[in-house]
User: What shape does this take?
Amino acid sequence: MIDKSQIQRVLDRIQAAEAAMSDPAVLGNAKVYREKVREHAMLRKLESAAQAYFRLLDEREGNRELAGDSGGDPELAAMARDELDRIEAQADRYADSAALLHALGGDWRTGEEASSVRTF
Assistant: This one.
């Protein structure tokens, strides 16, 4: 699993990219402006995937609590364990996706990440 704070550090660059796109120095340089637009687009796609990933992590935590509640309803705990298996598999797909890994450790300037961002 990828740590939420690691993803959030990358997403924090969205505001910087937006600010750069309105900077007169950047607006006057077509090459730099295109790079900033591509970076911004990649970050927005990552943001969408990351939000879904974060929701899954929150769901996983809630289901872990229900599944481990020994004093509660055993049928509800069993359903939570089943749901937990589904959530874990889906969260692993997000964490292993090329989009997240590329954005966290790759170079967005290659242009590959914009086309390889998967939606789930």
Observations:
- The chain has one domain: 4-108.
